[in-house]
Amino acid sequence: MTDLTALDQSPEAEFGDYVALLKPRVMSLVVFTALVGLLVAPVQVHPLVAFTSILFIALGGGASGALNMWYDADIDRVMKRTRSRPVPAGKIAAGDALGLGLVLSGISVVMLGLAANWFAAAFLAFTIFFYAVVYTVWLKRSTPQNIVIGGAAGAFPPMIGWAVATGGISAESVLMFALIFMWTPPHFWALALFMKEDYSNAGVPMLTVTHGRKVTRKHIFGYTLALAPVAMGLGLTSIGGPIYMAVAAVLNAGFIRGAWRIRARGEEAAIADGYAAEKGFFRFSLAYLFLHFGALLAEAALRPYGLGGW
């Protein structure tokens, strides 16, 4: 855990440091998937309610990022990928990061409840708690299943967006959750394959550290195979359609092919080309998720014209 006394000595932070504290890249995924969940729901939402709801969901995502950076500052300082983050770099005091995370958490939950409904607000509160406490405090440093279980935190936003519109949960929102949940392990394990030393040095029990790269490659392939039917199954629901199914078929074929290529590689080949296949798979995984949700959005946009949906 963060050493507050060691990290509270920091120079005056700039605006960009506080933006970085909220993990804007992660927030962008939260915003996009939550927006899709809201827009594909069968209940229309007033544009002002939709905008304010997404704003507060984004704020909640940023609050989670701030709390994560506060608690993980000690290991972030060790890892090359994270040592330049505001808290370990000494740009923002640990106490300030904690305070900001708590304040933004409270604001986001209360305002989402007032703007939309209290079910969605409670869902957001649970998501913040799950990411900050269940994943960051408990799972991340205790088990190689950290990403598998902890991935639920990143999978909740489309369900929250759906809840903003409908006030509840449905098979469609659960499958959107399942798509992200099943996608998360191969996505992060691909990163862990070429960042193993970072996690090892920080003492984070990522699968590559506890079981080695060979086992991790097999797990990536297994989860990718399990992900495909979830992705295709979503296309058979009321929010799917031929556009989504075509996009999903192409993406999942490519994802499985990439996972098989990673599984079949030995370490000598991976080292020789600088883990090019693994890095390519990681980049493709980002496009994979974006395009699936983009296809859902296209189905919803075209449905009023009789061109989307079943």
UniProtKB/TrEMBL annotation:
Q: Does the keyword Oxidoreductase apply?
A: no
Alphabetized Pfam families for the sequence: UbiA
Q: Which GO terms describe its molecular function?
A: protoheme IX farnesyltransferase activity
Q: Which family does it belong to?
A: Belongs to the UbiA prenyltransferase family. Protoheme IX farnesyltransferase subfamily.
The record, for PANTHER family, names: 4-HYDROXYBENZOATE SOLANESYLTRANSFERASE, PROTOHEME IX FARNESYLTRANSFERASE, MITOCHONDRIAL
NCBIfam families per the UniProt record, alphabetical: cyoE_ctaB, PRK04375.1-2
- What's the name of the protein? Protoheme IX farnesyltransferase
Provide the species name. Answer: Frigidibacter mobilis
The protein's gene is named ctaB
